[in-house]
Amino acid sequence: MKFFVDTADLNEIKDLAATGLLDGVTTNPSLVAKSGHSNFIELIREIASVVEGPVSAEVAATDFEGMLAEARTLTKIAKNIAIKVPLTPAGLKVCKILSGEGTQVNVTLCFSPAQAILAAKAGAAFVSPFVGRLDDIGQDGMGLISSICEIYGNYPAFKTEVLVASVRSPMHVVLAAQMGADVATIPPSVIRQLFKHPLTDSGLAQFVEDWKKTGQTIPRGSQP
Ligand code: E4P
User: Whose Cα sits closest to atom 5 in ligand 1?
Assistant: First the structure.
């Protein structure tokens, strides 16, 4: 399972990329606004230089011509840019064209299995079902992931990866992995939560204490 980080905060991206566990980045207009950066193109260029994997950059226009024109600009920023388009008729039309040209497209704002089928037919590299936002309105976010994984599994010709988005907790990530989702895009705070377990902390503290009792040190960087 691939891990993308869902943020436009460059410091967070650099910090998490240093773990070696990051496979890509997703941004959206809200995350860019939150980052406070005033030059979107430069921000995306910098993010794409920090991470080798796909960096999703979302178009701002909502009409077909506008989205396509913006996408053509964004794809020129770096080789690892994935163009993010909304799941609308115009967005899927743009997706079909760009995918046909070999550009990776991430179809965002997916909330139903029917929409996910359309994204796959449009040749999307990724479809982004938003689980947290469905949970927020009392619907079953992870149920949607289960349905999409089942449907895509029925059609080997569908090459679209299921990118679980709007992740709010480690359990979303674990359930997504159990369902066989390809990718989860995860806020930095939730990625950090994945590392944590109280028994890991207490166990490590005990090992450190007990090691001190031995009075020994392990030589660093030299032949034993
Ligand atoms: C996906 O690519 C979106 O950026 C994101 O996951 C949306 O999450 P939110 O519902 O927490 O805004």
Answer: 166
Atom from ligand 1 closest to the CA of residue 28: 4
- Whether 14 is a known active-site residue: answer no
Query: Which tens digits make up the pLDDT trace of 36-73?
Result: 999 999 999 999 999 999 999 999 999 999 999 999 99
pTM of the model: 0.96
Q: What angle do CA 3, 6, 9 make, to 5 degrees?
A: 120
Question: How many Cβ atoms sit within 10 Å of the Cβ of residue 152?
Answer: 23
Which residue type does 92 have?
A: L
Question: Which protein residues are within 6 Å of ligand 1, measured from CB?
Answer: 6, 26, 28, 108, 128, 130, 132-133, 165-166, 185
pLDDT, tens digit (0-9, with 9 covering 90-100), for 136-184: 999 999 999 999 999 999 999 999 999 999 999 999 999 999 999 999 9
Three-class secondary structure of residue 219 per DSSP? coil
